[in-house]
């Protein structure tokens, strides 16, 4: 009987030691002047908390003329959390455009370099926007101006976006793990 308890004790603490200690809880993309949510479950946590805000997944952005200069990625944002013994080191926006039905081509990587911690006195991020809790961070860049229609011929296209973020589940000083947020 003692062997069973010992084995159960070892298995429990092994699983606890490998749990996730950093993750994202909301993400969004800004196209022209509209912020679309990519992930987020509670309205207060969304990047765009407006009740009518759309999610990006499966969204049709409309019809545009050849070489139209009217569709640009103008911002990206991800909210992350971490424990006191873990780390989030970097967040990258990755995007590509391809002909509908033919996924191909590499992704363009854009680091989100503006990092805002949670002010635990006010429970608002240091940029003044959005509620937060201790150890939450916001990674964003709203200075982008990437025209994703440039050079495309007439046709139906897909804009694919995902975020990657690096961190550590076990230490505050390394970044050995990469996680992903897909639309």
Please render the helix and strand layout as text.
Blueprint: H1 2-17, E1 22-31, E2 34-39, E3 72-82, E4 87-99, E5 108-111, E6 114-119, E7 124-125, E8 136-141, E9 146-147, E10 157-168, E11 177-182
Antiparallel strand pairs: 1-2, 1-3, 3-8, 3-9, 4-5, 4-10, 6-7, 6-8, 10-11
Question: Can you walk me through this structure?
Answer:
With 183 residues, the chain is mostly beta strands. The chain has one domain (22-181): Immunoglobulin-like (Sandwich). It is 9% helix and 43% strand. It has one helix and eleven strands, in the order αβββββββββββ. The chain has one helix at 2-17, and strands at 22-31, 34-39, 72-82, 87-99, 108-111, 114-119, 124-125, 136-141, 146-147, 157-168, 177-182. The strands form two sheets. Strands 1, 2, 3, 6, 7, 8 and 9 form a seven-stranded antiparallel β-sheet that branches. A four-stranded antiparallel β-sheet has the order 5-4-10-11, with no helix packed on it. Residues 5-17 have low confidence and may be disordered.
Q: What is the total number of structural domains?
A: 1
Instruction: Report the radius of gyration as a whole number of Å.
Output: 20 Å
Main sheet, how many strands, which sense, barrel? 7 strands, antiparallel
Structural class: mainly beta
H/E order of the elements?
A: HEEEEEEEEEEE
The low-pLDDT segments are: 5-17
N-end to C-end Cα span: 49 Å
Structural descriptors:
single chain; 183 residues; mainly beta; seven-stranded antiparallel sheet; four-stranded antiparallel sheet; 1 helix
């Amino acid at each position: 009987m003692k062997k069973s308890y010992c084995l159960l004790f070892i298995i429990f603490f092994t699983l606890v030691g490998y749990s996730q200690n950093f993750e994202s809880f909301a993400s969004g993309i800004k196209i022209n002047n509209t912020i679309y949510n990519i992930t987020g479950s509670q309205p207060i946590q969304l990047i765009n908390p407006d009740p009518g805000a759309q999610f990006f997944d499966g969204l049709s952005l409309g019809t545009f003329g050849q070489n139209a200069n009217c569709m640009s990625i103008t911002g990206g944002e991800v909210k992350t959390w971490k424990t006191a013994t873990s780390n989030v080191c970097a967040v990258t926006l990755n995007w590509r455009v391809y002909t509908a039905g033919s996924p191909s081509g590499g992704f363009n990587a854009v680091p989100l370099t503006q990092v805002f911690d949670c002010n635990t006195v006010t429970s608002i991020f240091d940029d003044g926007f959005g509620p937060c809790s201790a150890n939450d961070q916001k990674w964003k860049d709203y200075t982008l101006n990437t025209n994703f229609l440039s050079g495309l011929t007439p046709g139906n296209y897909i804009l694919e976006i995902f975020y990657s973020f690096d961190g550590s589940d076990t230490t505050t000083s390394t970044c050995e793990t990469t996680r992903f947020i897909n639309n």
